[in-house]
């Protein structure tokens, strides 16, 4: 098995955990505060990871260059905007369709990978990505009203546009992170990914802290007050991000983000086995489509 595959699955699991914690905190912190804790509380763990690779693992620290700085900064800003939009979706009563659209990220990541890196995917991979996105959309829409008029209105409403924009910024950030990591040119994929993650997280923390101090100081204070659970958000977030950065250093963004759709399978499994929630036919069908898409993606390689 190629190494990027288990790393991506691990990252998807961590992201699922982080999202659950982040959604829990949104009521106490608001959109900006819930977005900030992902980066602000994640940076110390990212720094510990780099230090461990350097001191214990014996990896040399990479040399920073202009391409790395530009790609890391652009990716960092894009991820801030994408995370803010995604968290903001939960403010809408009919956020389900928007969330479904936000899951079109693998398609948009493939486009940005083509634009920024000149990377294309095989026909089998393109089909797998499309099938996986269809499965995710089915799961996301499974519990929406069956009234076609309401569904049609939701498909072009404000939450839908926010979801599409969130996916676009997530796709752009993922491709930019691969550019940044590869721009370092060594001393090994683990250190390249870890160093990129630490630099990006530091940049995001500074940018958001300055913005909040200027525009929303109460949100900044609230994020510090709720540090006990925010620390766990930061840990889960940086563990997932370390997985994403490492996987995207090893493999094209389109493949990594397509496999990452397994996160929805994790979510349904937890709902079913842990919380004993019922899963309807549309959710089950969507889950099967995602699994089929992942198998097609991996077998096609």
What does this structure look like?
The chain crosses the membrane at residues 35-56, 68-90, 110-139, 151-177, 189-214, 226-247, 253-275, 282-300. Residues 4-140, 161-298 form the EamA domain. This is DMT family transporter. It comes from Roseibium aggregatum. InterPro entries: EamA_dom, EmrE-like. By secondary structure, the chain is mainly alpha-helical. It has one domain (4-299). 81% of the residues lie in helices and 0% in strands. Helix 1 packs across helix 10 (217-225), helix 4 runs antiparallel to helix 6 and helix 5 packs antiparallel against helix 12. The longest helix is centred in the first third of the chain and has 37 residues, at 4-40. It is globular, with a radius of gyration of 19 Å. The mean pLDDT is 86.
What's the gist of this structure?
Helix content is 81%, strand content 0%. The chain is mainly alpha-helical and 301 residues long.
Descriptive key words:
301 residues; mainly alpha; globular; 0% strand
């Amino acid at each position: 098995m190629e190494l990027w595959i288990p790393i991506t699955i691990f990252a998807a699991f961590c992201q699922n955990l982080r999202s659950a914690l982040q959604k829990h905190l949104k009521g106490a912190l608001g959109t900006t505060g819930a977005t900030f804790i992902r980066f602000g509380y994640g940076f110390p763990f990212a720094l510990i990871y780099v230090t461990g690779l350097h001191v214990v693992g014996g990896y040399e620290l990479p040399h920073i260059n202009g391409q790395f700085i530009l790609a890391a900064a652009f990716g960092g800003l894009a991820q801030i905007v994408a995370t803010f939009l995604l968290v903001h979706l939960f403010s809408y009563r009919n956020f389900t369709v928007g969330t479904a659209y936000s899951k079109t990220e693998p398609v948009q990541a493939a486009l940005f990978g083509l634009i920024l890196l000149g990377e294309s995917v095989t026909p089998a991979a393109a089909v797998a990505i499309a099938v996986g996105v269809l499965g995710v959309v089915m799961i996301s829409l499974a519990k929406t009203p069956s009234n076609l008029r309401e569904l049609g209105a939701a498909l072009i409403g404000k939450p839908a546009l926010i979801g599409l924009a969130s996916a676009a910024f997530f796709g752009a950030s993922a491709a930019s992170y691969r550019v940044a990591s590869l721009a370092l040119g060594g001393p090994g994929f683990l250190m390249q990914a870890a160093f990129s993650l630490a630099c990006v997280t530091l940049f995001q923390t500074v940018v958001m802290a300055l913005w909040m101090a200027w525009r929303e100081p109460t949100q900044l204070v609230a994020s510090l007050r709720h540090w006990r659970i925010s620390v766990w958000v930061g840990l889960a977030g940086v563990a997932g991000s370390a997985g994403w950065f490492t996987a995207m250093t090893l493999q094209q963004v389109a493949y990594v983000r397509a496999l990452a759709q397994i996160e929805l399978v994790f979510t349904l499994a937890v709902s079913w086995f842990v919380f004993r929630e019922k899963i309807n036919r549309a959710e089950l069908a969507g889950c099967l489509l995602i699994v089929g898409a992942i198998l097609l993606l991996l077998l096609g390689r």
